[in-house]
Amino acid sequence: MSRVAILIDLGFFLPRYRSLIEGDANPSHTPKQVAAALFRTAERHVAREHGEQLYRIFVYDCKPLDKKAHHPITGKTVDFSRTPLFTFRNELHRELVCMRKVALRLGELADDSQWIVRPEPLKRLLKREITVDDLVEADLRYDVTQKGVDIKFGIDIASLAYKKLVERIVLITGDSDFVPAAKLARREGLDVVLDPL
Q1: Averaged pLDDT in 10-residue chunks for the chain of 197 residues
Q2: Is residue 19 domain-shared with residue 47, that is, in the same domain?
Q3: Rounded to an integer, what distance in angstroms lies between the CA atom of residue 110 and that of residue 87?
Q4: The domain that contains 104 carries what CATH number?
Q5: Domain membership flag for residue 173
Q6: Inter-residue contact 52 to 4 (CB < 8 Å)
Q7: Residue 122 is assigned to a structural domain of this protein
Q8: Cβ contact 17:34 at 8 Å
Q9: What is the pLDDT of residue 177?
Q10: Tell me, what's the pLDDT at 25?
C-alpha cells in the first residue's frame, strides 16, 4: 500500500478556490465549507482503488494580521483584527486543526509591512493620467509578507523524502520556491506531482 502526502499553500489555495469552486453566483462559503472543500481537493489525489492511502495533508499559512495601521490617505486607524478576513482566517485555521489527518503549519508575518499603491492606479500614476492627490482610499493596500512558510514547506518535503514516509507527494501551490525541494524528493525516489488547481 503506497502512502500519499498532500502539501497545500493556503495563500495559493484560497484565491483559486474562490474563482474555481465558489463561482460568481454563489455566496461566500463558511470556514467549515472551505475546510471541507480543501480536504476533498486533497483526497481526490489519493487513488484508493489502486491501494493508495492518505498519509497526511499539510496546510501552510500564517496567522492573520492583527495590528493597527494608519491609512496614509485618510489618516484613519485601520484595525486589521476587526476585519472579516481576520475572523474568517482564524475560524478556518480552527476548522483545519480539528480535521483528521490535517496538519496546520503556521509561519509568521514580517514586521516590515507597508502601504502600497495597487497595480492599476500605479500604472495611471506612472503614465501621468492621475496625480497623487487623485488617489482614493481603495487605491492602496497594506502589503504583508510571510516568513517561515517556505522553509517549513521545504523541510517537510525533505523529511518525507529522507524518512521514506510516503511514496508520493502532491504539491498544491503556485510558488516556484519549492522546486529544489521537489527535485530532492524525486532524487530520493518519490513521485512528486504539482497541482496548480
Answers
A1: 92 83 60 92 89 94 87 86 89 94 90 84 88 86 83 91 93 84 90 87
A2: yes
A3: 20
A4: 3.40.50
A5: yes
A6: yes
A7: yes
A8: yes
A9: 78
A10: 46
All three cell numbers of 192: 512528486
The CA distances from residue 161 to 3, 151, 172, 191, 196, in Å, are 12, 15, 17, 10, 21
**Domain containing residue 91:** 2-67+79-108+146-194
Among residues 22, 11, 5, the alpha carbon closest in space to that of 58 is found at: 5
Q: What is the pLDDT of residue 28?
A: 67
User: pTM for the full model?
Assistant: 0.83
Read off the C-alpha cell for 20: 474555481
For residue 28, give the DSSP letter.
P
Rounded to 5°, angle at Cα 127 from 125 and 133: 30
Taking alpha carbons only, the member of 173, 197, 177, 193 closest to residue 59 is 173
Residue 38: which of 1, 11, 4, 64 has the closest Cα? 11
For residue 74, being part of any structural domain is answered with no
Closest CA to 108 of 43, 152, 141: 152
Total Cβ atoms within 10 A of residue 161: 22
Residue type, 118: R
